[in-house]
Design a protein that fits this description.
The chain is an alpha+beta fold. It has seven helices and 19 strands. 24% of the residues are buried.
Length: 432
Amino acid sequence: MHRIKTFMTRPVALMLCLVLLGGSVAAAALNASPYEMLKNAVFDLLTAESAAVDIDMRMLVNGELRTHETSHREFSPSAQYTRTSHTSAADDFSIFSVSFDSGGLSIFNTINLNHTYLDASGKAHRVPPYCAVRRDEDYASEGGLLGTDTALNRGDIYVRFAELLLDTAVGSLKNNISVRDAADGVKELSGTVTAQQIPEIYNAAASVFAMSQSTGAYRYISNEMVGDDGKYQTWRTITFNESSFTKTVTVTRQSYEKVFTDPETGAELPAGDPRIDQDNYHIMYGDEEQVSQREEPLEPADFGEDKLAHPMKSARIDYASGDASLDSDGRFINASFTGRIICETVFGEIVEIEVIADGSANGINSTEPQCPIPGAQELFTEEYFESVIGENYSLFRALYFDTLPDGSVDPDSVVFDYADFFSSYIDPRLLD
């Protein structure tokens, strides 16, 4: 059966749902005393001119690791450096990416750890070529950690509105807190909010989000050919009725005939012609007619074995717990968060989603990102691009290159092929 996967992003979406919904609950637990001090530390980080931030996030489904995300980001007004990794245990899929932007130069690479790459000589590599691009203007974002188009300040109306929303969402939950003074003036805050303490509005929002992932996304479940007698092809199509949570099974058949053609002229050949090649034909279809149509109850098997891909009926936050540390100047040092959301599918199945996240920051307002590939920033100047690309420089300004064993740029590997570099340079290196 050919199944359409419509929920490739559901694990990440549900993870974000828990972090966003439960995160505000955890923020209350973390920020309860003194709430304003930690809130200021968080917003100061979000609007900082520069910093280095690390995030590690894992999602478990029914106790089993589903996804693992890591991110390291350094930013300043003049440069941005990001390194991320994503591993999906369910799909046995891992991706690693790196990017650097400064002074109109962008260098990036995305590595699929499940693939092997071949160079022109047939030698296998685990890392594909890097790409360097020059733009007419500086591409490095001025928006700090959030990466907005312009820099954010604490006094901006958008920031102040966000603070107001946070204050409203947290409410009295900020009272669920314990505070401890640690060495060197560090304040350590921690707290836990249980299911009984979580306002119903959070669970209502979680349920709305869970159900929204099930409406409209399953209208088309599968379409498969179930018969072929040489004259008619029979197809079975299953569609999802989101209002009644039923499925409609439609069986159709369509007449067809094989038309054989001359491989040299393309002209149609009559039956019995000795030039007929059984492998050289095209199909002419006739009218399609409906054989039957019926409505049936949905079954879990219609959506596969992964319960997270089954339509959701409700969701509730089971708990949220967090810890945070501030330095003696009130700046954010690190934080950790754990939380669990319990979903119920339309089939009555229970799906427990647990999120474990850790984050840290340093170099606030003193970080200056460095290019991760030594020599690349010095090599890929405006003049170098123009000398390599020549007359096509204004049309397409990208170069591909490999690195030497020490991680620095290999100047002899630089390639530019404006006409067909995708087919001649990238695709032959990629083997599934």
